[in-house]
Design goal:
The protein is of the alpha/beta class. Helices cover about 35% and strands about 20% of the residues. The protein is globular and about 45 Å long. Bound molecules: (5S)-5-amino-3-OXO-hexanoic acid and zinc ion.
Amino acid sequence: MEKLIITAAICGAEVTKEHNPTVPYTVDEIVSEAEKAYKAGASIIHLHVREDDGTPTQDKNRFKECIDGIKERCKDVIIQPSTGGAVGMTNEERLQPIYLDPEMATLDCGTCNFGGDDIFVNTENTIIEFAEKIYGLGIKPEIEVFDKGMVDMALRLYKKGILKAPLHFNFVLGVNGGIAATPRDLIYLVDSIPDDATYTVTGIGRNEFNMATISIIMGGHVRVGYEDNIYMKKGVLANSNGELVEKVVTLAKELGREIATPDEARKILGIG
Ligand code: KMH
Ligand code: ZN
């Protein structure tokens, strides 16, 4: 089986220090959390950034400071800025980090409820605009899927030539408003994508490690990190993103799956 690519989503836009005091806000904290995740075995850093007070931002300069710091301490890691940002941001705001020459960027392929009154809006025209800009800059998109209809949207745009093979998906299961984190629903998503596509699996909250385990067994890849879950197990907060990555490495080793280096991840994903 292909080696396992581990993505660390170290920060996100929603989780705060009130949830877990080690959630990173400052540039130093973000760089340090990225380094811990990288040293533990992550080959991709999925990156959101914050102001010092924790406010999510897509500011290009703030992204540049964080990306420069991460590149200095994690020489070969793949950096994947978010173009999702936080609920309520404009498209222009969200797109800023793609102009920093990253290797990857996210491409959210549909609209969904995001808990409470929040709606994460991605109209068809937004998806097309983002896709054209991302491919236009030679960046590999990771197609973010929160519900099955988003796979179908991606496949429609693929047939039209707007998305290009090989497609790489991130299946996010367990968002309050998206597809449930069940083995059945994960298999449904995996069965719906082309044979030459790759996928990673993100289980939200308490679903993080059971979804990761299923993906390790099925030949998919895994994303973990504070964006998605702040606990090592029920009632035990993680001390760092590195600890969450370490747990996936342990699971993978127990299940006989080797971990991909960043360069091996590039080959698997067709980057560069
Ligand atoms: N923060 C969510 C509203 C992405 O990174 O592309 C969107 C998100 C997806 O996190
Ligand atoms: Zn994200």
